[in-house]
From TrEMBL:
One of its GO terms (molecular function) is cobalamin binding. It holds the Pfam family B12-binding_2. SUPFAM superfamilies: Cobalamin (vitamin B12)-binding domain. Residues 107-232 form the B12-binding domain. The lineage of its organism: Bacteria, Bacillati, Actinomycetota, Actinomycetes, Micrococcales. It comes from the Bacteria. This is Methanogenic corrinoid protein MtbC1.
Length: 232
C-alpha cells in the first residue's frame, strides 16, 4: 500500500474517500493511442488523467513512467522510432502547456538545462512544473546548452539553483571543469541517469536522485525549511 492509500500492485491511486484512479489503465490507454498514432485519443486520456488526479500525482504516476515505458518499447522494438517521436511530441505539448507562466512570481529562481550533446530535456518539465507549483520561478534552457554561457550569466546574476540533467555520465564528465566553476558561481544540482553521487561530489554539486516530481518536492521543502531557520 502507498502512503496516499493507493496500491502499487494494482496501480490504483485513491483520491479522497472512494475515487480510485487506475494509473496502469491510463498508461496502457495512452501507450495504445501512441501506438496507433491517435493524437485525439491521447489528448482525451491526458485530459481525463489531469482532471482525475492532482497535477503532481499525474506527472509522477502517469507521465514519467509512461515515457520510461515508451523508451522500453522502443528499445525492445515494440515501438518504432516514429511512434516514439510521436509520443514525445504529444507529451511535450502537454508539458509545455502546463509550464506556461512558470517564470512568473517572486520566489527563488531555478535554471533548468541539459549539458552539450544531451537532447533529453523532457524530464526537466515535470521538475520545473512542480517547483513552480511550490513558488519557484523557472528559467528553461532545455537541451544542448553551453555550460560556459550559463557560467557567464551566473557569475553576474546567480540563480538560487541550477539543475543540469543528462542520460549518460559522459555528458557531465566532458564538462567537468566548467561544471566545477558553475558550482562555485551558483548552487548546482545534477540529475538523470547520467548523474552519479561521485561526480556530483567531485564538482561541488548536489545529486538529485529519484524521479523529477519527488526531487522537486524535496528541493522546495528543503528551501522552505531553511527559510524558516534563517529568516531574512
Ligand atoms: C523521449 C526520448 C528521446 C527524445 C528526447 C526528447 C526530449 N526533448 O527529451 C529523442 C527522440 C530526442 C531521443 C533521442 C535519443 N535517445 Co532517447 N529516449 C527518450 C525516452 C523514450 C523518454 C525520455 C524521458 O523523457 N523519460 C522520462 C524520465 C523522467 O524518465 P527516465 O529517463 O527513466 O529518468 C528516470 C531518472 O533518471 C530520473 N530523471 C531523469 N531525468 C531527470 C531530471 C531531473 C531534474 C530529475 C530530478 C530526475 C530525472 O527520473 C526518472 C525516474 O526515476 C527514453 C526512455 C526512458 N527510459 O526514459 C529514451 C532514452 C533516454 N533514449 C535513449 C537513446 C539511446 C537515445 C538516442 C541515443 C537514440 C539514437 N540512437 O539517436 C538519442 C540520443 C540523443 C541525445 N544526444 O541526447 C536511451 C538512453 C540509454 C542510455 N542511457 O544511453 C533511452 C533510455 C531509451 C532506451 N530504453 O534505450 N530520445
Amino acid at each position: 500500500m502507498r502512503r496516499d492509500g493507493g496500491d502499487e500492485l494494482t496501480g490504483t491511486a485513491m483520491l479522497g474517500a472512494d475515487l480510485p484512479v487506475d494509473v496502469l489503465a491510463l498508461r496502457a490507454e495512452l501507450t495504445d493511442a501512441f501506438r496507433h498514432l491517435d493524437e485525439g485519443r491521447a489528448e482525451d486520456v491526458l485530459d481525463q488523467c489531469f482532471d482525475a488526479m492532482p497535477l503532481e500525482d499525474a506527472l509522477r504516476d502517469v507521465v514519467v513512467p509512461l515515457m520510461h515505458g515508451v523508451g522500453d518499447d522502443w528499445a525492445s522494438g515494440a515501438f518504432s522510432v516514429a511512434q516514439e517521436h510521436f509520443a514525445t511530441h504529444v507529451v511535450r505539448g502537454r508539458l509545455t502547456m502546463l509550464s506556461r507562466g512558470w517564470s512568473r512570481g517572486d520566489g527563488p529562481v531555478a535554471w533548468l538545462a541539459c549539458p552539450p550533446g544531451e537532447l533529453h530535456d523532457l524530464p526537466l518539465f515535470p521538475f520545473g512544473i512542480v517547483l513552480h507549483q511550490r513558488g519557484w520561478r523557472i528559467r528553461f534552457f532545455g537541451a544542448h546548452t553551453p555550460v560556459h554561457d550559463l557560467l557567464a550569466v551566473a557569475r553576474v546574476s546567480p540563480p538560487d539553483l541550477v539543475v543540469l540533467a543528462a542520460t549518460t555520465p559522459h555528458r557531465f564528465a566532458a564538462r567537468r571543469w566548467e561544471l566545477t566553476l558553475l558550482a562555485q558561481a551558483a548552487p548546482l544540482a545534477v540529475a538523470g541517469e547520467g548523474a552519479t553521487w561521485h561526480f556530483a561530489e567531485a564538482v561541488g554539486a548536489e545529486l538529485l536522485a529519484g524521479d523529477p516530481v519527488t526531487a522537486a518536492q524535496g528541493v522546495a521543502l528543503r528551501r522552505s525549511r531553511s527559510a524558516v531557520e534563517e529568516p531574512a
